[in-house]
Amino acid sequence: MGKRQTRFAAWRSRLADRLAQSSQIFLLGLVIACGVEVLVDWNQTLFEINVLRDQIRQKGLNYAGLLARAVVEPVLSRDRATFDRLAQGLLDDEDAVFVRIVDPSGKVIYDGVDDSFEQTYGKRGKGTFRHHYGHWLERDLQGILTDPEGFKQRLASSRYRDVPQIYSDLLNRVTAYFVAPTPLPKLRARIVYQDRLRDEHRNRDDTVTWALAPLIQESAAGSRQVGAVLVAFDMTRINSAVRTKYLKGLGMIVFFVALILLQNISGRRDKLRLLDVGRRYAVAKQALHDAMQKEPVSLVTEAGQLSVHGLIEQARESVDGMVWDAAERSGVIDLLIADPDGDGIDAAAIGLHILRTFRSRQQTGVPVNLDDDVRALGAATRDIPLTRPIGILRLRILASGEVEALLGSSVFLQIVGGSGEDTLTTCDWSGDIPDGLIGPLVRTQGVLPRGATLVCIATGRGNLPTPVIEEAALRKVLARSLPKRKDGALCEDLALSLRSKYPLLTDSDIAVVTLSRSA
Questions:
Q1: How confident is the model at residue 1 (pLDDT cuts 50, 70, 90)?
Q2: What are residue 411's phi and psi, to 5 degrees?
Q3: If 449 and its partner were Cys, which of 215, 290, 420, 513 is the partner (CB 3.0–4.6 Å)?
Q4: 3-state secondary structure of 168
């Protein structure tokens, strides 16, 4: 019999089993797990895409800023040689393809295009770069010249954005809500990066981006605008890398979602299998509990009274199969504790069969001989398929207190209290160990004094060393239990004390039986 659960613990256990068996809860958990994985992988993919695009953005901001400082004086003097030299330096970059400089009215002072890009672009069937993008180039340059703040607002609210851009804008707004953005230098704050273009069909155009900056002449009298500069970039290389990132992210999502599905489905099958085994184990343990002796056994004669109390503290998870029984017959109390080797349903079957065999032999009326009885119980194990040997305690006590017992190595006997001398002598079993029993066996004889209690403990640990129970600890438990409650409380207190004190007994049954002789 296991430790009684609280109502909350029992409710929590039932709820956990019900949730584990619910297909709806399983599907909900599976959807949540897959959703989290998709969000994590998708977030990483979008982040890497924005990092790639930010390389071009930083180039645009740097190149536009350099030109905005370098061409103010050449614009005033219309120094084309300086424009050519500066533009050639920028167009040597693998991504920069076009440079345009305009005066305050928007009139083009200079523009230059990369020759190799111009040839490649002509094959697209859209005409030259200047012709195809002429309207948008003029529009944006007019915006940076006449209404830079409005131009920035229109870009921020543009609908020609893809998912990475929307995601980046969202993160920036959330971050700005908690942390104020660092103020940009005055020149850098004037630069606008255009990456939200549309084509002639009003679809998003991601093949080209450009950076724009106003040209400001600073003097002692103040500052005045003398024009604007535009640097355009070809996004072919970046778009190819972006597509690779999308494919990689999609592959990671498919792989990890498939892995989550396989792991969860396999884990659910294992969980349901364990729950089914747990239910079978619970039925087997309940069958053992129902079959064992529950009421105290008493023997009252002129020599005094003998009382037997006992219980099996069953393992929480496994089925150890340990059983006990006691019976009074003709002025003698016979006691049995049997522990099948190993655990499982077959161990429970062997325990129940040994219990029936012991009771049937008690009902025959034939005088009991411990040696013959132990041999018969060992032989009875062969009646069960997948049989296994048993550890045993077979004890008989007379009304006079005389004790005789045969026991294995996993059984512990100790006399506590009493007014006389505690006398128990032990000697080895003579001869071979009978079939079906776990050896070695020893024979114990002695007398239980008046007012004393014989404590019998079987740990169900097979060939593991039996824990030594100090007499002082037994006396302490006796002093705590006996005055307050019935004698049976001693068995429960001892079993729970052993369970908490010896962690190695977690997966084993513990049998505690007390034989008390009145004073």
A1: very low
A2: -115, 140
A3: 420
A4: helix
